[in-house]
Prior knowledge:
The protein has helices at residues 4-21, 28-33, 47-57, 71-77, 157-160, 259-296, 305-322, 340-346, 378-381, 385-399, 406-409, 413-426, and strands spanning 86-88, 105-110, 113-117, 123-130, 134-141, 150-152, 174-176, 190-192, 206-207. The protein is of the alpha+beta class. It starts with a helix and ends in a 12-residue tail after the last helix.
Amino acid sequence: MMNKRLYIVMVFAGLMALLWALPLVHSQDQLQDSPAIGYRRAVSQDAIARLQQRINSGEVKLEYSEKNGYLESVLKALNVPVSSQGLVFSKTSFQLHRIMPSSPRAIYFNDELYVGWVRGGDVLELAAVDPQLGGVFYMLDQEKTTRPRFQRNDECLQCHASNSTRNVPGFLVRSVYPDARGYPIAPLGGFITTHSSPLKERWGGWYVSGKHGNERHLGNMRFDEKGADYNPAELPSQNLTALEPRFDTATYLTPYSDIVALLVLEHQAQAHNLIAKLNYETRLALHHQQVMNEALQQPNDELSDSTRRRITHAAEDLTRYLLFAGEATWQSPINGVSNFAKEFAATGPRDKQGRSLRDLDLRRKLFRYPCSYLIYSEAFDALPKPALDHLYKQLWLALTGQTKDKDLLAIAPEDRKAVLEILRSTKTNLPAYFQRDN
């Protein structure tokens, strides 16, 4: 008769093997309770948490304005540029009763933060990138007080930890077909927008200011349930350089919803999700392997095949995104109308030739060099070592033309060479083999 302990171990091993074979889906309970993640229990180390510490110590004092509450002071304290402003009039926020075409919601962002402001709203909505947790969400009451306090709001995970965010706490930019009041028209559907989305699917429910030639998008328009085809009467909504008289722009920090800022926002949000996805996938895989090895009384010295596959798959997804595989292109040059493009490009590290991964192209694509600037981010560098090892290896194979991925092989050799040279000059902690050409 089989030893009882051996039987239990075999059953446990079978269950763990089944779990490893399934795609990773994080329920909210897993986010809260998994010992590998512990999302709700963890103390966040993001920029907003650090700002709160500075407020508590008296080092920073937020200034209140009758016009927009703490908005301007928060943006300044968190180094979020006003030029990043994007305006969304679809009712896709929990303050939806205050959002409408005549009163859009303003979104501001930098490399690790997102700030939402609604005119007359009760709170500022904020989201930060935590290196270990992914997206962490906050509210700040718009009431004058001696010591403002950012309140963490995990209720945001109802939308911000779903298939739309790669099943990790993250960010999403939606494009919908709004009606005259800003409500999304459900039968017409919508899109989650990334840098791979064709322009014709973007910015439904958003105001868009800027030039884009003959290209068409869904911004600045309203629809009815009869269909989503372009209405010739709406063509004046394209190539707008001013958003008056659609709403009172004087009540906002700038009169723009810059097309270039929106393009960067869409790329960045999904990149953050994929970095967090690789982090979560790796930590969960390593935890499952450890539990399995402890049950079998085996050493936990090396990655198992199943653990390696899980990490490799997530690393491949992130590699492709960082190198803009499948990126949408356009036929007409794009030009913004604010200072965003100039300010954005000015903040990145540059190599000896003056090149930067923040250099914009905008003639046919978003960036001049096909590698995301988020490779410099704290969240990227904080990835678990097995994840970074796999990710760097895949990036090196792609940049030296040795990958088997056809999309990455299609990157022009001169662009691969330029990215490799820029990284060698500006990215710390690169593996030694990055100094070789092959």
